[in-house]
Structure formats: structure tokens, C-alpha cells
Amino acid sequence: MSYKPFDLNGKKAMVTGAAAGLGKACALGLAKAGADVAVIDIQDELGEQVAADIRELGREAFYLHCNVTDHSQVGATVKAVYERFGRLDIAHNNAGGGVGGAKSADDGAPQLFRQVVELDLLSVFYCCHEQAKLMIPKVVDASSIPLRQRLPQCPISPMNCCPWVWGWLATVQPRPG
């Protein structure tokens, strides 16, 4: 008998950044708990494979290409997920990360900082903005706890965005009463 921490049978989910890493693990975990999953990413081959893996678990799954730093793509993707599933119960906005390529903080810093903000902050806003239209009052989002030290390959860290994300999430949570 397999361990099932909670039952999501029949729930409809979308996971951004679902082609690899934590997003893939979350998408598979949601499927193992019974949810049908829309796999959202920009890594097409890997995303299609994750969707296939979920279908092998007996759940409905499909892959959609979406650059979450583009608000119009996010809006079209959320709409496509809603049209395919008929509703959206779970949204895990996982896409994010650091931007490598700089050797020091002054090596392209403004451009790299903008990329981090777009990926780790604005993408969460774009996703929540579009999902909230369909899900209020049940918006729940997740943000990672940032690394406490700078990654050598990423002098401009995603940790800069986490407090902003947490503040934004607090504004979209349902209020009692």
C-alpha cells in the first residue's frame, strides 16, 4: 500500500517551472495524490516528458509552453488550462531561480537584476493576477525560503525577491469575514 498524505482526487492543478527540479517533483506529487496536472514550462522536451510521466500514473496531464515573465503568455496559459480542465483548483507557481553568467555583482548587474526580478517576482504576480480571477477566495501560493549565502554562479540572488513575493502573497490571501 502506498503512502498518500492527502487526497486530491479530481482536483485540477497547474505547476509552473514543472519540467525539472522542485516543479517536476511537485507536479508528480500532486498527480500521485490524485490531481490532474497542467505542466507549464519553457523546456518543451522535458515538460512533455513530465506530462507523459503523470499520464502513466493514470492522471490527466498536458504540457503548455509559457514564459512566465511575459504577462500576456501567462494570461493565455491560465485561460488554456481553465478551458481544458473546466476549473482550476490548485496553482503552484514554482518557476524561478537565479540568473547565472556574471562573474561579479558589477558584471552586467542591472540587466541581471532585472532578469531575477522578472523571473522571481513579476512572474508570481502575473500568475496570481490571472489565477485569482478564477480562484478567489482560494488562492494559495508558495515561495521558497531563499539561500542564506550567495551562489558562486549567481551573484545576483533570487533571495532579493522573496520578501516582495511574501508581501504580495499576503495581499491576495482571503480575509476572514
Helical content stands at: 40-55%
- Tally of DSSP β-strands: 4
In which order are the strands of the major sheet placed? Answer: 3-2-1-4
Query: Helix/strand-derived class?
Result: alpha/beta
Per DSSP, the total helix count is 5
Largest sheet: 4 strands, parallel
Radius of gyration: 17 Å
Mean pLDDT: 80
Extract low-pLDDT stretches.
145-160
Throw out a few tags for this protein:
177 residues, alpha/beta, 44% helix
Could you explain the architecture of this structure?
- The structure is a single chain.
- Helix 3 (71-85) packs parallel to helix 4 and helix 4 runs parallel beside helix 5.
- The longest helix has 27 residues, at 109-135.
- This protein is globular.
- Strands 3-2-1-4 form a 4-stranded parallel β-sheet, with helices on both faces.
- By secondary structure, it is of the alpha/beta class.
- The N and C termini lie far apart (41 Å).
- 44% of the residues lie in helices and 11% in strands.
